[in-house]
Amino acid sequence: MIKYIVIIITILVLIFLIHSIIPTYYNKIFNTKVKKQTQSPGTIMLTFDDGPDKRYIFSLLEVLDRYGIKAIFFMVAENMNNNEDVVRLILEKGHKIGLHSWQHKNAMLYSYFYTKKDFENSYKIIRKFQKEKILYRPPWGHSNIFTNYFARKYNMDLIFWNVMAEDWSQNETVETISKKLLDRVKEHSIICLHDAGENSGGSVGAPERTINALDITIPKLQELGYSFIIDEVNY
């Protein structure tokens, strides 16, 4: 009996390894088609995941406007669908949007059928706002064996990050977020922050701390000579 249990557990582990672990780390480490840093000298990129969230987005846009910064917003498609006016405002201000899945679920645990539904529904929603090639960032950077197939099918480019500041955590403050950004950002950084709170797994009020930290940090990064870009265009 124990022998059969061990065999079953081994099979399940192998399935999870093939379905989830290998695709995730292939994309994170080895897949050269996944964008993980900017290319132009002296450039960095500012990106936000999980929104849009009307509680925070207007304050965030004000800070970005104040310093003349353009950013990329990776949106949960359901949030996008429920906040079409916000999405259009973000685009009108010259920012770029991308997809961050349909419902912000972990792709490691997706079946084929849910993965298919995730991409189909996300694609339908974002096409209302954007016709060109779509940027896609999976939640937590997690993939499964079907992710790359559906990304190619819907003409999506995967883009990850190389700097985080754990800004979703209740343990972080304005000061610690700012310090982490200043310590970690360097040439070619793609910064991943979050503009929605508990709705997507962050702590209550976390985006407010992020916004205040950016108000402190952006001018310091500009003083260091970094250019904020989207699509390798300087701002």
UniProtKB/TrEMBL annotation:
TM annotation in the entry: 6-26
UniProt cross-references to PANTHER family, sorted A to Z: 4-DEOXY-4-FORMAMIDO-L-ARABINOSE-PHOSPHOUNDECAPRENOL DEFORMYLASE ARND-RELATED (PTHR10587:SF137), GLYCOSYL TRANSFERASE-RELATED (PTHR10587)
Highest rank taxon of the organism: Bacteria
Annotated keywords: Membrane, Transmembrane, Transmembrane helix
Name listed for the protein in its UniProt record: Polysaccharide deacetylase family protein
Organism: Peptostreptococcus equinus
PROSITE patterns: NODB
A Pfam family reported for this protein in Swiss-Prot or TrEMBL: Polysacc_deac_1
Annotated ranges, domain NodB homology: 42-229
